[in-house]
Write a structure and sequence with these properties.
This protein is an alpha+beta fold. It is 38% helix and 28% strand. It has a four-stranded antiparallel sheet with strand order 1-8-6-3, with no helix packed on it. A four-stranded antiparallel sheet has the order 5-4-2-7. Helix 1 runs antiparallel to helix 2.
Amino acid sequence: MDVTEEIQTTGQLVAKFESTIASQVSGQITTVLADEGEAVSEGQILLEIDPELRMLELANVEASMAEAQAQVVENWRDLQRIKNLRERGATSQALLDDAETKLELSRARQKAAEARLGLAERALSDATVRAPFSGLISRRYVSVGEFVNVSMPIYEIVALDPIEAEFSFSELDSAVVQPGQTVFI
């Protein structure tokens, strides 16, 4: 008769990927598109944090950017006129220096506006929360209408393929366990 020796132990299943998704922008949650227990795919939209506000902020920054660009063009034209007058001796060096300074200041303002534009575009993108990988929503921390701050947890997502089993057994049983043996979970 064959005798089968079994070792029974308890353990836990551990996901290869597990993540707590946090808010990268503050604002009111306007749309929730995924709930606990739902399977989601990488890149899928989970929720939105007041994207209308972010679009308005972006439009405001784009207007500031256009204004800064127009100021650069205007100051460049003024500088060219003053240079022509200076070459003819019809204006002072101080006026030319002032025009060059104004042009440099307007270029600096344009670069600052470009940076604000990048931040506004990023905030609009971050207002749409997406799944970082395919998996299951194990927990949803927020609801529609709630106000969230930066770094506030929104979801926990777990990838269940592949999944690992962690368990331990006593030292007495270690002599019986060999590599390559079958384990039933």
